[in-house]
Records
---
Amino acid sequence: MSSRECQNCHRLVHHIAPYPSNSRNHHVLVECEHCKELVFCYTMGNRIEGVKAMRRFKHQATLRSNRSQNDWRVELSDIGEEACTSNYLDSYRAAAICLRIALENIVNIHLLQTSKDKPEDFGSLEKKLKKAEELPGSRLGTSAKECADYIRRLGNGAAHPGAPDSVLPIESNVVKGIKKLEDLIELVNVR
């Protein structure tokens, strides 16, 4: 794999950055001329020297397989992939919000069996997590609760900067949040 290979179509991106060589930027978003997707490139002057590796959502194919577009797990897959893409494009707050939405869907639809067509019934995430935890035979064991709590606090940090007990939405925390979501999906057996 070349250091200038598009993460989407795996073809080489152009080697000249689209700005003057005296620019202070050390990265730029470039549209791949082949697949038209945005590629995050590292630059030196006006020359593209490398491409940021893109992380894909681990459960994308599993959650989408043999399901209609209407299935909530397809939407969960899309939200997870959107979190990965937002993180790739340095939009950490957006990625953290996506993770929080994914958590709300898992808790409300999967654990509490609330209809996805009635999001007004979702209510407070904190209260719903507590309710899911108290259910007989709850799938929210210690590890799953830890994953859910991290994602909740990361989402709080994105939506309410400076909120007590929140996690700052920066790249490393979002990467950790994506991993926690992938783990949570396995721990509570979303299939």
Note: DSSP finds six helices and three strands in the chain.
---
Amino acid sequence: MSSILCYWKYGNYLYDIERGHLARTPSYSSNQRRLHLVPDIGEKAYLVTYNERRCYLVGKIKIAGKRFNPPKRMYMYGRYRIVGIPKESSFYDYGNIDVTDRVVAFIKRNLRSDKEKSARLPHPIPQYLQTIRQLTESDAMSLENCIDAHNRHLKP
């Protein structure tokens, strides 16, 4: 199975919260064709946002289907959309699940040169996340562990 990592621009995340979009059927849209090509039905899309030099996990969607947004009513986020299984998808409050270290480690593993891998990232984190990324099973498990730790913290 191939999970994916998707970047949700912070401003778009705030916009969707303000408009109540997160209360609807979980979904994520992009202009990237990879959103339909890489993950299969039943796989997960992990949504991260970036603000104030930190990267936060703000959603997980277990994919139930793939759709095209209608051309006449073009969604502001793009043509391709995945729709999630509501009971197996979640959104998390901004700032609660900091995954900066995990995302930086993931980015460094996927850089081309050893020099880039050992140094500080030469570009801001969002630049690396603009392309939907396929996660290894280990990367997905690491994000699941963050979610589990967050959920344990919430329980009395």
Note: The chain has a mean pLDDT of 88.
---
Amino acid sequence: MGDWTDLVGKVVDNLDILDANVHQPQTTANAVIPNAAGNVSNLRRWNPDYHHLWDTFRTYPREIPLVGGTLVTPNHLKYGVSWRFGGQYNDHGRYIRDAVAWVEVKGIGAAQSFTINADWREPEWEGTEEDPVAKIECYLTVTWEQFWMTEQRWAYHFTMLGDGSGNWVSGS
């Protein structure tokens, strides 16, 4: 029975995916698979589509009109996690592959700085030992600095499951 619930695959512990407005994408993906499988290519029935959980952050500062435009650019970021799911090993379980944290920067204003850190937890499982559902969690911490002082810091807790479901909660 333990062949399906002895899980491995987390390859990234902690990384900045946005560091002082410099995008540093997560290039190595996490997985949650049985140790006995060896690697994700030994699992079958992967869902071909990614599942995504995300949120956005926007500010609308007062515009200062200038000839040819404005002085202030609104902050606009989108960030979250994505993963593929559903893989089975010897017709058992539903596992996770290609789990990554990401950020899209659509605009950052002058004298503004953002850092987004991803902290991945150890793989777990839910359900029965006969048919486990893989689970991995990622905590994103967003730090917003304005004029070199921390304006705000908040965190997200993303939970991804091998059946494609998931959720997130935010807090400060």
Note: DSSP finds no helices and 14 strands in the chain.
